[in-house]
Amino acid sequence: MRSRLFKPTLIWLQGVTCNGNTHSFLNLPYLPQLLARFEILYHPLLPCSQNLEEIARCRRGCDVLVFEGAFDPMMERAGVTLERLVAYYAEEAGHVIAAGSCASFGGIFKAAAPERNSGLAYAGEHPDGPLLGKAGKVINLSGCPVHPEWLGFALMNIAEGRPISVDALGRPTALYRHMAHDGCLRNEYFEWKVDAEQFGRKEGCLFYEHGCRGPLTHASCNRTLWNGVSSKMRVGTPCFGCTEPDFPRRNLFETKTNMSIPEEVPVGVSKRAYLTMTGIAKSFKIKRLEERLTDDD
Amino acid sequence: MMTKALIEHIEGEASLYFDTRGEKITWAEIAFPHFRGMERMLEGRKATDALVITPRVCGICGHAHLMATVRAIEAAYAQAGYPVELTRKARSIRELTLVLEMIQNHFKWLYLVILPELEKLGVGGISPAPLKGAYAAAQATKILALFAGQWPHSSYMIPGGVTCDPTHLERIQAAGLLDELIGFFEKETAGVGLDALLSFASCREFNPLQSDLGRLEKGLIATEMHKKGMAYDRFVVLGEHGFTVRARLKHTRPMKADPSQVSTEPAVCRDETSHARNVRYGKHFYEVGPLARSISADTALIKNMHRRYKDSVYTRVMARAYETAVLLQHAKTLLAELELSEPSYVPPAPLERISAEGEGIVEAPRGPLMHRMRLERGIVAEYGIITPTQWNLGSSVMSDPAPAQKAMVGAADIAEATFVFRSFDVCSVCTTH
């Protein structure tokens, strides 16, 4: 464990981005405490000791590089290409954090310009980014945007000198071993194959017809709630699988089905077994799951 | 001689090119270098996919983009002869979450941008506390997320209503959080109760305030911002909401506003490729944003400021800061009047039947946001976005400058001109999208 006196230096760079990860991070409840653990050399919105032009001169490295947005080698920040900026700071840094799905896999902005843009170490699920050779130091915090608590978790571990174990796609297992489905308030409907039928109701599961990717998406959105209070599924919006390399897929509000069974079944489940189980589950008629949950209306 | 200044700590970056005589600014051009191709990536996708993609245009006003998209899809439904039924409840929840996004924006702009920049101009006693802005913004997004699931980047508005089904539990939680946020605003930002602040009729009433808003007001006068940064004194409000009125205004005189009169052309910058566009109503540039909204809504205090100091930086900045109070009050009313017994969602006709054009207009934090789309059997054939910053921060020729250009000419030096620029609340990612 590092002493609390050691303050790692941090630079937050932006590639092709919407700034969503920056703004998501500002929602972190313990933001002031976290910032106090680092020496912020550069951040696009928060107080920092250097400006972008100074950073672009590439004279002094940092301990932690946070990168937000897709990587487009030719894009310039303060007149210097991302290719040069990322190569320089990643070389120096002990840790590189890809904040969000664009930086991790290319995300929305890879979808907008697939021939140019990628993530730092991956393009979609293929290890094919500029930091491929340094993939060991890249921590992928996918999500569109990154959940502030996930970024808080990674940065606090770095500040404390703790190792972070990652999955095959470079994502911390502590955060991405769960499925988005885990902790969903609609799980009982999922188990008994009761579909939501329509939007705007808290009853029913969104997996069967409404495009929800909860059982197929590695994310802990329903364990660590968004903004401390909620998640997409809690408000009846399907999970769009934004932490996975194939985000954004197409027809996001629909589930592709085969004989009224979702074509893709929950991760790790055999399709044949799932079909059998679905048949049995559907044969139950559970009155409680056919009624409204509250009498507010 | 052209002098370049890189402007950051906005949403992305912008380049300003100044012509100067001595230190004084005689001309300014604006370039936004980063382009991302959001409109093109929507083509060929199902219209509902736009509800997930367009919030990603902007990390700070994605919710406004979501609302513009859903309104555009619903307008296309109507044009195709399948009008979408929306309950009052769905409308109120949409408006409430939009208002909360505006509130977080204004807090961040005030604390993370304007107060620190004002201090850099040499005003003493500002003591900026940027993290106050992050704290207050996070409180606002927490309330928003109770209905929308998360912020940024939620997709809970859908044609026919909203996906959420809130109970009185969420309503009461939201009301508690909102009261806390109002308490913070009264104590830290305003230094006076919300009701008292909303009843202010003259700038003089700021004099006794020992608060961030009081320091802001004094700082703006100390830097003579009440005499600087005038643009055209012409305003447009296009979104239809409960907190303002759609209108086109010359000075404070309102006229009818017709969105079909809005047009765009590429922005001009001699020294750098800019991906921005200039937006005009008819043949003219107009200013948009909280100042426009306040005048259109007949807000007594802002009209008083405008009478004294016209459309100066002072009036523009104070209008945005003051709108936070107006919006907090509006959020409180919306929440109190929320009728939970109505349905959240009324299913519309199948999207595949819709071949039509639709336009969705929303007042985003910085002004009117317009989404236009053409659908062929529910698939996006064309998509166009016009953002508020394109209205204010276009870059045109010397004989016909865009509002921010006009406002910067005459500034004493580059530092002052960039403050004038920031008074419009610059968003680079929205400007280019």
UniProtKB/TrEMBL annotation, chain A:
Q: Where in this chain does the entry annotate a coiled-coil region?
A: none
Q: Which cofactor does it need?
A: [4Fe-4S] cluster
Keywords, A to Z? 4Fe-4S, Iron, Iron-sulfur, Metal-binding, Oxidoreductase, Signal
Mainly localized where? other
Could you confirm whether the keyword Oxidoreductase appears in this record?
A: yes
Where, subcellularly, is it found? Cell envelope
Show where the NADH:ubiquinone oxidoreductase-like 20kDa subunit domain sits.
18-156
The record's section on InterPro entries has:
Cytochrome-c3_hydrogenase_C, NADH_UbQ_OxRdtase-like_20kDa, NiFe-Hase_small_C_sf, NiFe_Hase_small_N_sf, NiFe_hydrogenase_ssu
Q: Which domain of life is it from?
A: Bacteria
> Which residue range or ranges hold the Cytochrome-c3 hydrogenase C-terminal domain?
176-250
Question: Is Protein transport found in the keyword set?
Answer: no
Q: Which Pfam families match?
A: NiFe_hyd_SSU_C (PF14720), Oxidored_q6 (PF01058)
> How is the quaternary structure described?
Heterodimer of a large and a small subunit.
The entry assigns this protein to a family as follows:
Belongs to the [NiFe]/[NiFeSe] hydrogenase small subunit family.
- Descriptive protein name: Hydrogenase
From TrEMBL, chain B:
Q: Which domain of life is it from?
A: Bacteria
Q: Pfam families attached here? A: NiFeSe_Hases
> What is its subcellular localisation?
Cell envelope
Keywords, in A-Z order: Metal-binding, Nickel, Oxidoreductase
Query: What start-end ranges are recorded for coiled-coil regions in this protein?
Result: none
InterPro entries xref list: Ni-dep_hyd_lsu, Ni-dep_hyd_lsu_Ni_BS, NiFe-Hase_large, NiFe/NiFeSe_hydrgnase_LSU
Q: Is this entry keyworded Transcription?
A: no
Q: Which cofactor does it need?
A: Ni(2+)
Major location, coarse class? other
Q: Which family does it belong to?
A: Belongs to the [NiFe]/[NiFeSe] hydrogenase large subunit family.
What protein name applies here?
A: Nickel-dependent hydrogenase large subunit
